[in-house]
Amino acid sequence: MMRSRVVSSLFVDRIRAKPKLKLVEIIHEFKNYYGIDISYYHTWFGKELAKLDVHGDESKSFNELVWYVNVVKGTNPGSLCVLECEAGINHFRRFFVSFGAFYPLAFGVVDSETEENWTWSLQHSAAILLPMGRVVTFFSDCNQEFDIEVPKSGYGKLLQDYVINLFSICAYAVTEEEFKVATDKLVIVESSKVKAFISDLSRDRYANTFFKGMRYGQMANNLAE
Fold it and tell me: Helices (DSSP H) in the chain: which residue ranges?
């Protein structure tokens, strides 16, 4: 136990900065820094103690979340606050909150980024925004999708960066002329996947120039406008 407490006290800052720090990394660092060998068990238990110091007790945190939902609903009329858990085991699934008494703000926490969770989040967002009569457009950078369409293997890192840079110029072009120049450069890249990706994608879905929505109101720096 003493050794685990020592590991916890010495590595709590490392665990805070890097929660997924592997046990073997802790063992090696402990050996390199202090010249001491520690067992796998003491390393594991020490990491758990450090995580407890950093994040607190998970069960208590969950109970506080249940309490928080009730407080929001009771003290902030008009708020939408939803906590969902797996039936029978009270395992956290997702949480959504939008405060009724403040500037329109909503955020959600989910167990994983899936189509189901995205749909769930957007449905709750729509429940707040639609009664206001507001038109809102959600932007996504599609970075992962485009990365799949232009894999690094077979193209080379230089070509991949070149293609992605050209696509970014297309997306953020403010005039049709600027868009056409960038597109012409992009389609001559010797890649059938790049050409197919561009031809199958509606311009108003990714190009700033052809966006049909309203360009005023609130803007955030996370690609939401």
Answer: 2-17, 23-34, 40-55, 58-75, 115-129, 143-149, 157-172, 176-187, 192-199, 203-206
Say what the pLDDT of residue 71 is. 92
86: which residues sit within 8 A by CB, 6+ positions away? 93
Residues 102 and 147 in one domain: no
Q: Which long-range contacts (CB under 8 A, 24 or more apart) does 140-145 make?
A: 140/223, 141/223, 142/206
Q: Are residues 165 and 197 in the same domain?
A: yes
Q: What are the two backbone dihedrals, phi and then psi, of residue 91, each rounded to the nearest 5 degrees?
A: -90, 125
Q: pLDDT tens digits, residue range 132-144?
A: 777 666 666 555 5
Is the dihedral angle over the CA atoms 47, 53, 55, 60 positive or is it negative? positive
- For residue 91, the enclosing domain spans 59-132
